[in-house]
Design brief:
6 helices, globular, single chain, about 210 residues
């Protein structure tokens, strides 16, 4: 149970909704991405799992469908998305808009933590790009479609963007983002970028 008594059975019927959940969803794990995609699909939403690994996504989809009632086939699909490559992000948005005419829910769930320092093909520290830059790029690319979806609905609260973040950012790391060194080159060790990443987590929680 979560704060306020919300439970999965509190989720209303989502027939007609189209959702994207980012992140690798390993079959058998109890992570947020896996459970979110499953619960949305169980409420009749069409759900796209956007991640790098087609194999892991398809395995997760198979497990989700197996867990559902035999008379009910979950509407789940894989969307190729590599958040460490901005061209992949751009292509993922393009591919989605070629497949769908609406987007009701964008759930930015993917993230990495405490990884060795490394720059992406775009020249950004990979945690900074994976957790924030690429999700922002995906949101901006899909925003016209989400606005169009909202315009067709009588419920102005129907279209949502959900940003999943770490609560550790509230109590750890500096209070402001170092825009002079967004790649955090001055930090050392695997956890260095994660501590400096804290202002972004605070920003996401406030959005």
């Amino acid at each position: 149970m979560t704060r306020g008594g919300f439970q999965t059975h509190s989720i209303p019927d989502l027939m007609g909704y189209v959702a994207i959940v980012t992140g690798d969803v390993e079959p058998g794990n109890s992570g947020i991405g896996f459970e979110t995609a499953l619960q949305l699909a169980l409420r009749h939403a069409r759900v796209y799992i956007a991640s790098r690994s087609a194999v892991r996504a398809e395995n997760a989809i198979a497990k989700m469908r197996k867990s559902a009632e035999k008379a009910f086939v979950l509407d789940l699909s894989y969307l190729s998305l590599d958040l460490q490559d901005l061209q992949s992000v751009k292509q993922a948005a393009k591919d989605f808009m070629q497949r769908e005419s609406r987007l009701d829910l964008l759930i930015s769930n993917a993230g990495i933590m405490a990884v060795p320092f490394e720059l992406t093909v775009d020249g950004y520290e990979k945690q900074w790009q994976t957790n924030y830059l690429s999700h922002h790029a995906l949101f901006v690319s899909l925003l016209p479609l989400m606005r169009a979806t909202a315009a067709t609905s009588t419920d102005k609260n129907r279209v949502r963007v959900v940003l999943v973040s770490s609560s550790a950012g509230v109590s750890m790391g500096p209070k402001v983002m170092n825009y002079d060194d967004p790649n955090m080159k001055a930090m050392e060790g695997a956890t260095g970028p994660w501590f400096v990443d804290a202002p972004n987590r605070k920003l996401f929680r406030a959005t």
